Amino acid sequence: MTPTSTSLALFVVASLTALPTFAETKKTGKQIYIESCEQCHTSGANKAPVVGDKAAWRPRLKEGLSELTKDVVRGKGAMPPNAGNPKLTRRDIQLAIVYMANESGAKWKEPT
After folding, report:
1. pLDDT of residue 25
2. Residue 6 lies in a domain
């Protein structure tokens, strides 16, 4: 190998190892909840159901993940579309919903 090709190879390897992996960049439902949902869903602000309040969540859980996802995407009541965070993906929203639902008595699986 020439010095130039060796330098190039080292640069490529260093660049690739410096990049975060997909798994490292994924957030959990709890992390998304803390960043985008916690403010209202811990205090009950704007009539948001408090996470852990099984009675408040019971009718929502009956709607299912698909309907709850639509509610968040569109916005519902005082909650703005995408919970006020335009960067949230549909999967992010579903992860946060599953986290809140499970903390409130459900046994839902995370979306794949």
Report:
1. 60
2. no
Q: Is residue 32 part of a domain?
A: yes
Give me the number of domains the chain comprises.
1
Q: Phi-psi category of 106—alpha, beta or left, where left has phi over 0 and alpha has psi -120 to 50?
A: beta
C-alpha dist (Å) from residue 72 to 2, 8, 63, 80, 93: 57, 48, 13, 8, 7
Q: How far apart (Å, rounded) are the C-alpha atoms in residues 75 and 55? A: 22
Say if residue 86's pLDDT is above 70: yes
Give the whole-angstrom CA distance, residue 111 versus residue 4. Answer: 47
- The pLDDT tens digits for 33-62 are 999 999 999 999 999 999 999 999 999 999
